[in-house]
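Researcher: Here's the sequence for the chain we discussed earlier.
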Amino acid sequence: MEVNPVNVSQDVPIEHQNVPVAHEGLHNFLYSSDSEHSAVAAIPALENDGTQIMAIDTWRDLATNAKVAGVYAVIDNSHQTQYIGYSRNILLSLNGHIAQNGSENCAFLRVQTFKFPKREEMENLRDSWIAELGSIPPGNGADSEMWASTVGAAARAAMSADEQKAYEEKKLKLRKAMADSTLTKELETATKSDAERGKDLESAVDNDDWSAVIQSQTQETKSAS
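Model: Thanks. This is the structure I predict for it:
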């Protein structure tokens, strides 16, 4: 297979290197926005090696316009570690944690940033930090439902309207690129007019055949879940 060579010594994320020519269309579609697949600390003050602890509010102010990936530890106002996790958008995750657990439990932050984040590397560092503590933080153990298990939902709840829109557009783009077979059905159901639904109901009554109505309602229920 023909490959479009990229000089690996260049400052180029690995996912953009040596992309097969036949796959360039899909690759460019999925990676059409650098901000979706890279997380670069554009502000030097945000680049951190994990040795510093700082107030979360200070870090959030610095990260207002930056998408930063890395491993982070959330520390309460008594300087007890409450949760250690990793994220491709630490600010969004922190906003979710604060919304779920309050500022008293989310007072300070330890973070090690990753310019080109890899899940396995971040997981290993997270596990190393937990091992350093000698005990499992509440958010990684008994209280995980308020931290790790709900970080996605909490982060979405903390999104602005524009962030919510961008998130949904990104999900839709990914489903289209993966040729999700359920997407077409969902779109057909969503665009089905009231008149068409009325015809289905009328047909069901006249012919005593409710299959079309049931199928439509079932699909709407699946789409909503």
